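STRUCTURE:
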């Protein structure tokens, strides 16, 4: 009586032998011209999808080439900032920096906060939630909070708070005139999305 192992080996050998020399019909393989047409169609579909995402086919609202990175090695975070937003040296220190855009009057603050026993996180969230009906905020997860809306009659803000593994937190906030919202809203989202812990 043959063992199950020897039967398995025999079946494997038979399958391998039956597949040797098997050829596909040449007519089933697309020509290089057909492959080129398929690639062109796929490329056009991607371009059409991008144009549809931009509503009227205009260029994206945010130009990535106009951004630079601010990295704080001491506090372990980085964030993208528009190149033409200068640093406010008087308001900046080792914990973070403040950037001002003279044209739009937008102010970006990105920095580290000690946050002992989550006291600063709790206070920051309470301040945002108490800012009025014009503000909306929520925890994305236990270590991230986001909020945006109107903080007074003429100003809008967008904020993101990340809690680090050691309990301290990194907060990025952009405040700008409400009448600049159409131009700044997508930029503010991109800047806050770029906030990364290192």
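SEQUENCE:
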């Amino acid at each position: 009586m043959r063992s199950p192992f020897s039967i398995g080996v025999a079946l494997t050998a038979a399958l391998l032998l039956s597949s040797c020399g098997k050829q596909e019909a040449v007519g089933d393989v697309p020509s290089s011209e057909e492959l080129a047409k398929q690639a062109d169609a796929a490329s056009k579909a991607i371009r059409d999808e991008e144009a549809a995402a931009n509503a009227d086919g205009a260029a994206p609202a945010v130009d990535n080439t106009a951004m630079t990175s601010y990295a704080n090695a001491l506090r372990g975070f980085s964030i993208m900032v528009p190149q033409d937003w200068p640093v406010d040296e008087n308001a900046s220190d080792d914990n973070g920096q403040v950037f001002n855009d003279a044209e739009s009057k937008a102010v970006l603050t990105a920095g580290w906060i000690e946050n002992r026993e989550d006291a600063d996180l709790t206070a920051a969230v309470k301040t945002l939630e108490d800012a009025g009906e014009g503000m909306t905020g929520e925890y994305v997860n236990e270590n991230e909070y986001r909020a945006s809306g109107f903080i007074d009659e003429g100003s809008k803000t967008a904020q993101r708070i990340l809690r680090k593994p050691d309990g301290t937190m990194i907060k990025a906030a952009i405040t700008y005139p409400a009448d600049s919202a159409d131009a700044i809203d997508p930029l503010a989202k991109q800047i806050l999305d770029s906030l990364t812990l290192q």
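REMARK: The domain at 65-197 is CATH 3.40.1000.10 (Protein Transport Mog1p; Chain A).
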